[in-house]
Amino acid sequence: MSRPQYHGVDHHVGKTPLIRLKKLSELTGCEILAKAEFMNPGGSVKDRAAYGIIKDAESRGLLKPGATIVEGTAGNTGIGLTVIGHARGYKTVIVIPETQSPEKFQQLRTLGAEVIPVPAKPYSDPGNYNHIARGLAEERGWFWANQFDNTANRQAHYLSTGPEIWEQTGGTVDAFVAAVGTGGTLAGTTQFLKEQKPGIAAVCADPYGAAMWSWFTNGNLDDDDGDSFAEGIGQGRVTRNIEGLAIDKAYRIDDQTALAVVYQLLHEEGIFVGLSSGINVAGAVRYALEHGPGLTIATILCDSGAKYQSKLFNAEWLLENGLEPGMEVEEVFGERR
């Protein structure tokens, strides 16, 4: 018998289960399937981008043992870079907007990252968290992960998420749905899937206040249409990971619809996720109701709800922000059928 091979956590990114969402599948007459990305070592889909960016940098001689990685992030990419960085011998400095959940700050610091909170400012402002991270890299000789415009992010999903969904569905997948933060998940996954089966639909689920619905639907970046409490998604510019991405359908998903999905998954299916996951699943349901029944639709459960307990699972916070946790999914989708 050959000796088994053992590896550290960095070798266990990906290969997450594809979970059937029972109630929403029954509601739509489609197979609504979701990748359980909260089962990655760092707890989110961003582990894939983090691993891909680190491996790419190593292959190009940009990262050497003991180096420091700096990144501007809403939290999850920073967590992924820190976990995988520890496993491969790197330090991390994370620049994060002050508006992100307290749980993310606590987790990053617990993991050992140096955390630099900054005011939330648009990309056009020099004080934007990405520009600050880039400046620190230039000043101190650190490696800037640059998740938004580093196409190693997109490539990571082309090499992992897409092939996994194709294999797990036996090639029967008809559509893939994802929100856009950097654009890597949607671009890389759909690129692979469309190469296998050109008729697969690439679908964007966009929160209010973001510009990708407008970009894919109208060809402009007019995003003056509201706001969202979703963290880690919502983009106002065409990143390099998005460039060249052809989308078949895009949806605007409001927070109340996404919240109803989050609570349904928690109470009826035992799946504990955050608002970005709710937006993704809501997009899959919208597509199913418009194009089904009989379709197989895959999407992403981005991360665990544990990072959002002080907000999404706090009755007082929900009340203050006009959100109703008791709304049924039949109600929020019934109006859109």
UniProtKB/TrEMBL annotation:
Pathway stated in the Swiss-Prot or TrEMBL entry: Amino-acid biosynthesis
Cited PROSITE patterns: CYS_SYNTHASE
Cofactor dependency: pyridoxal 5'-phosphate
One Gene Ontology term from the biological process aspect of the record: cysteine biosynthetic process from serine
A Pfam family assignment: PALP
Gene Ontology molecular function: any one: transferase activity, transferring alkyl or aryl (other than methyl) groups
Record bears the keyword Amino-acid biosynthesis: yes
Organism encoding this protein: Luteolibacter luteus
Residue ranges of every copy of the Tryptophan synthase beta chain-like PALP domain listed in the record: 10-303
UniProt xrefs under InterPro entries: Cys_Synth/Cystath_Beta-Synth, P-phosphate_BS, TrpB-like_PALP, TrpB-like_PALP_sf
Record key words, sorted: Amino-acid biosynthesis, Pyridoxal phosphate, Transferase, Transit peptide
Descriptive protein name: Cysteine synthase A
